[in-house]
Design goal:
Helix content is 44%, strand content 23%. It has 673 residues and is of the alpha+beta class.
Length: 673
């Protein structure tokens, strides 16, 4: 090839290379321009993202490397934790924000996150602010990866949930309080749907456990006779939000009939009743007490009626006993009629005792203690309690029992209670054994009584007996195993004997029988006075004013007074008695003793009359007389100004003893005003 040709060839190649270089330069320029635009876009995007991240003031966004050094800390993190970004970037977060316990928990969470190759860890964790507060953060932790998929750090997005946690804790505490209140309330609290299906119950009811009741119909456990009442109440509360409480009965597991009172309410959602609440309380004891109050009211009415009858009846007995004692004084013991009158007198005294028994049985009498031998009282009380029944009695009661200071009517009531219990324990008939004996209790005795001499009275039956469980409760008020019992007889008996400084001890065995043992302390001091009461009437002298509204009583008492040497005067009421006493003083023919009837229908009785008399004549000696004693005046007559008391009916012998103590000075009694 010629040199010219070679030159042209080289020029062509240079031109091609130049054109190629121009194209490359143009492409490079375009690529550079494109890269610059991309870099600017990337910078703009980064600025945009940073602005978004920093504008999230309620959200903390924190980026860390694997060593937990903070790489990014947004405005939200500054707002929540109080630290500025310059304070936190390039330093470890853990030592500032977490306690050791929380740090350990977070590290374990991160390890689990990496091991499971999970995308996010969600947890609630406590963190500390710059001012020392502890806050709750809901944290979403996400791994950051390099281009090869290796974990190079973490991105944490957190929300301050402190207020929510406080609200949840408060709600939980409130729920726990209410649950504790509901679970421990002495009430049965149920929630049922509109069909009566039990959704919740707080306690065992109807002898069924909570698990047994939940999910079942309440009507399964209520007697069919009450179904209509319940359905009506549930319908009313669902429709109107109101329903009257109802009472119903159910049987306990051991067959005891229990009374419940139920109140209804509703649980509403958007104004509609979605469930019904039933709050039931066991009112068995209250119901029993209500019935007892009704019975007590009847007994009080009976007592008032019996008291009025006893007042009139004892006035009649005064006339009968007085005339009999007068008739016996006027004849010798050899007279054929002497023994007849003695039997009539004995019958009258038994009528007197029967009246006292009836009064005390209706709880109408006050406590009047006197020293006596209770042999006849035991016998009469046993016979009285078994009258008209198919139960026989066996008596082993000696006549030489030591004397005791007792209220005869109350002790008779106690024995009656035990005899009636024995009779009820033997519905098919049987035998009640009544025994009495003198005993001495020494230091080794298991009985909780002081050492000394006592009378022991035992009432035994061969009836059904009492279980050991019930034997411990028989003296508790209102406790009874009888369907129609009131649970007051034995508790009242226990109280009476305790007030007499005695003791009741019960022994029983199922199928064998029961024994009640009564221990009463002996009153040695009164044994001498017991003998003094025997013999003929004591003669005396002086003037006695008798205040009584009953003419028959005035007549027979007047004759008795004259028979034993006294000059009687008579008044129909308190006003007349005070006037007569005043006239007698002015005429120097004063009355030595005044006997005043406690009750004067339509007039002034002894209570008011003695007060009026003693205001004028403080040295007057007044005896109160009554056939029915129902207040504290009987046991505390001195406090009202009386010197003594004489109970109707009385005979000439008792009357003479009372007057002899006051007038003749045989035993001076202090008269208090």
């Amino acid at each position: 090839m010629s040199l010219f040709d070679k030159k042209n060839s080289i020029l062509e190649e240079i031109q091609e290379r130049t054109a190629e270089l121009t194209r490359v330069n143009e492409q490079l320029r375009r690529e550079i321009a494109e890269r610059n635009r991309a870099d600017e876009a990337l910078k703009e995007t980064n600025r945009f993202l940073e602005n978004i991240l920093d504008s999230s003031y309620s959200i903390s966004i924190i980026s860390t490397d694997l060593d937990k050094n903070i790489l990014f800390w947004n405005k939200g993190a500054e707002e929540i934790f109080g630290y500025k970004a310059v304070e936190m970037v390039n330093r470890q977060k853990m030592d500032v924000l977490y306690s050791d316990e929380d740090t350990k928990e977070l590290i374990n969470g991160i390890k689990s996150l990496i091991m499971k190759n999970a995308k996010v860890l969600n947890t609630e964790i406590r963190e500390k602010t710059k001012d020392g507060r502890t806050i709750w953060i809901n944290l979403n932790l996400t791994p950051r990866f390099d281009e090869k998929g290796g974990v190079i750090g973490f991105l944490g997005i957190g929300e301050d949930i402190t207020e929510r946690k406080r609200a949840e804790e408060a709600l939980q505490e409130s729920e726990e309080k209410w649950r504790s209140l509901v679970e421990n309330a002495p009430l049965f609290i149920l929630i049922v749907d509109n069909k009566g299906m039990i959704q919740f119950i707080n306690r065992v009811m109807f002898g069924k456990g909570i698990e047994e009741l939940t999910g079942r119909s309440i009507y399964e456990f209520i007697h069919a006779s009450y179904h209509g009442m319940f359905r009506k109440s549930i319908e009313q509360i669902a429709k109107t939000g109101k329903a009257e409480p109802i009472r119903f009965t159910a049987s306990s597991p051991d067959g005891v009939i229990l009374w419940y009172e139920t109140y209804f309410g509703s649980i509403k959602h958007k104004g509609q009743a979605v469930a019904i609440t039933l709050i039931s309380m066991d009112i068995t004891e209250r119901r029993r007490m209500e019935e007892e109050l009704i019975k007590t009211g009847k007994l009080e009415s009976m007592s008032l009626l019996a008291g009025g009858i006893a007042h009139d009846f004892n006035n009649i007995l005064v006339a009968i006993l007085g005339n009999i004692s007068l008739a016996r004084l006027n004849m010798s013991k050899d007279d054929v009629n002497f023994e007849i009158l003695a039997q009539a007198e004995n019958a009258s005294n038994r009528a007197k005792n029967l009246t006292h028994q009836l009064l005390n049985f209706t709880k109408g009498g006050a406590t009047i203690k006197k020293t006596t031998s209770i042999s006849e009282l035991i016998k009469d009380s046993v016979k009285f309690g078994l009258r008209g029944s198919n139960v026989k009695h066996e008596l082993s009661v000696p006549d030489d029992l030591w004397t005791v200071e007792v209220d005869e009517g109350q002790i008779s009531q106690v024995i009656n209670n035990f005899v009636i219990n024995a009779k009820q324990a033997m519905p098919g008939g049987g035998v009640v054994k009544a025994c009495a004996e003198n005993i001495t209790i020494g230091p080794e005795s298991p009985l909780k009584l002081p050492e000394g001499e006592y009378i022991k009275v035992s009432i035994k039956d061969n009836g059904v007996g009492i279980s050991k469980e019930h034997l411990k409760k028989i003296f508790d008020p209102f406790f009874t195993t009888k369907e129609k019992g009131n649970g007051l007889g034995l508790s009242n008996s226990y109280s009476i004997i305790k007030n007499h400084n005695g003791l009741i001890h019960a022994e029983s065995e199922l199928g064998i029988g029961t024994a009640f043992n009564i221990y009463l302390p002996v009153s040695k001091k009164e044994r001498i006075s017991q003998k003094e009461a025997e013999g003929k009437p004591v003669m005396g002298k002086g003037r006695v004013l008798v205040m009584d509204d009953d003419e028959m009583v005035r007549n027979v008492v007047g004759i008795m007074l004259e028979k034993i040497g006294y000059d009687p005067g008579f008044a129909r009421g308190g006003t007349e008695a005070i006037q007569m006493y005043k006239e007698a003083e002015e005429s120097h023919r004063h009355f030595d003793v005044v006997i005043m009837d406690l009750t004067i229908p339509g007039g002034m009785g002894a209570r008011e009359a003695v007060k009026g008399l003693l205001e004028i004549y403080p040295d007057a000696k007044v005896i109160v007389s009554s056939g029915y004693c129902n207040d504290d005046l009987v046991t505390e007559f001195n406090r009202y100004g009386f010197c003594d008391i004489i109970s109707k009916p009385y005979d000439i012998n008792e009357l003479s003893q009372k007057l002899n103590k006051l007038i003749m000075g045989k035993e001076q009694l202090k008269c208090a005003v």
